[in-house]
Specification:
By secondary structure, this protein is an alpha+beta fold. Strands 1, 2, 3, 4 and 5 form a five-stranded antiparallel β-sheet that branches. The longest helix is centred in the middle third of the chain and has 11 residues.
């Protein structure tokens, strides 16, 4: 039998998401980024039948996957932020795994952690510089 104070609590409860390494509570430091399926194979991996997956992709081109997203969390023990693929498995229960590279292409609005592949090494290096010493990188023939 539940205590009366537990039954009458109306405030929302904290999400029970724990570090897979240290089993301590981890704090979210980003928004949730929804994952989308672009081909029938991605839907079939999640339990949708082959025929239904083909029909969904043919009619919608992309299908939002319910109960899965990418999110960054801060672990107090690790002292670092990591991106996780979160799968909601039940009421207030979640399964965490480090976000694999192929999921970054399935999420919308996420900045690729490896940077834009179309940007050259020179531009990437210049964007990381704190001060401006532009002439050092240009070599003049003279």
């Amino acid at each position: 039998m539940q205590r009366r104070c537990d039954r009458n609590r109306k405030r929302s409860k904290r999400r029970a998401i724990y570090c897979p390494i240290h089993s301590c509570y981890i704090d979210s430091v980003s928004q949730k980024y929804q994952i989308f399926a672009e081909n029938p194979g991605q839907l079939q991996q999640r339990g949708v039948g082959r025929r239904n997956a083909l029909m969904l992709i043919a009619s919608h081109t992309t299908v939002a996957i319910e109960g899965e997203w990418l999110e960054a969390f801060w672990c107090e023990e690790c002292q670092q932020t990591k991106w996780y693929h979160v799968q909601k498995s039940g009421d207030r229960t979640y399964k965490l795994s480090l976000a694999p590279q192929e999921l970054w292409q399935q999420a919308t609005g996420v900045i690729n952690p490896n940077g834009n592949p179309s940007v050259g090494e020179f531009t990437r290096r210049q964007s990381r510089l704190v001060g401006y010493h532009g002439m050092k990188d240009f070599q003049f023939v003279g």
